[in-house]
Design a protein that fits this description.
disordered N terminus; 4-stranded antiparallel beta sheet; 9 helices; alpha+beta; elongated
């Protein structure tokens, strides 16, 4: 079975291409992730642990018992692609190892394809990240909530919440765990409540800032604590509940996300904002395992 990239921070591009040097190595890895390898029960003849051999010059494996064809890329974004699988795998590798995202121009330079192809590959990988996160259960434990405003600029060139064209986003972070973020139309009570109910397990502990709309959470069964940023309060310890209430984790995520947008993508339209949020939250949720990120994305094909 082909090994996927190491979770080591020293994993190099050279090591990546040693493990995925050609089309066959990539196909073998997809077979391993999707079917457990090249020996499995044939869906046509029923042979137990039948051996499947690859056909030359085709992305197809054949059952040794009955000749049944299995295409590991069938039904995926790779099914009819003319871009080499090594390029796709390298693009996925780049998305898994970066902190600040990968722009279409960067993919164009790295893969040697047209900008149109690079942009399409990037968006489809972001869709895979979104799909992979769809398998996750509700957030549990102590959850931090915070909304942010992304994009837009005032006529004087300065940034700020009052600038037009901004997209409102809401982040939800487990302490030392998973991260989610969604685009929201406003910061009204019902909007924030719906996001929390859809993503956070009932009875969880929730930290927020002093935004009035969050006051509803206690009535929905959550253990709610708020820090008052207006009073320069950033951490509040509740001795009765034995909990530290703050939103530093999710605020740190927004700081990284906004800096990445400015430096890597320059700007992101509201139309595509959710894709980029899913990209960054996928990496944040799986930040301790590059190896696991890579396999999750291949499995999500």
């Amino acid at each position: 079975m082909t090994k996927s990239p190491s979770a080591s921070p020293d994993f190099s591009v050279r090591e990546f291409f040693q493990r995925f040097p050609d089309e066959d190595a990539c196909l073998e890895h997809i077979m391993a992730v999707r079917f457990g390898g090249t020996r499995f029960d044939c869906p046509k003849c029923g042979t137990v642990e039948s051996t499947f051999h690859k056909l030359q010059k085709r992305r197809t494996y054949v059952c040794a018992s009955c000749g049944h064809h299995v295409n590991p890329t069938a039904g995926t974004i790779l099914e009819n692609t003319r871009t080499p699988l090594v390029s796709w795998f390298y693009a996925i590798y780049l998305f898994c190892t970066t902190r600040h995202g990968v722009s279409g121009k960067e993919l164009q330079r790295q893969l040697g394809v047209t900008y149109k192809t690079a942009y399409r590959i990037g968006q489809q990988i972001r869709d895979l990240m979104s799909k992979a996160q769809g398998f996750d259960a509700l957030l549990t434990g102590h959850i931090e909530l915070d909304e942010a405003y992304v994009g837009g600029r005032r006529s004087d060139g300065k940034r700020g919440r009052g600038a037009p064209g901004k997209t409102i986003v809401m982040g939800l972070a487990e302490r030392e765990g998973r991260m989610r973020a969604v685009v929201i139309p406003d910061v009204k009570k019902n909007t924030l409540r719906d996001v929390v109910l859809q993503n956070v397990e009932a009875g969880a502990t929730v930290s927020t800032d002093e935004l009035y709309s969050y006051n509803l959470l206690t009535f929905d069964g959550y253990s709610h604590g708020a820090v008052k940023h207006g009073r320069k309060e950033y951490v509040w310890y509740d001795y009765q509940r034995g909990e530290n209430f703050h939103v530093n984790t999710v605020e740190g995520f927004w700081k990284l996300f906004k800096a990445s947008v400015r430096s890597t993508h320059v700007q992101i339209s509201g139309k595509h904002m959710q894709r980029y949020l899913d990209e960054f939250t996928f990496r944040a949720s799986n930040r301790h395992r590059v190896n696991g990120m890579f396999d999750l994305l291949v499995g999500a094909l």
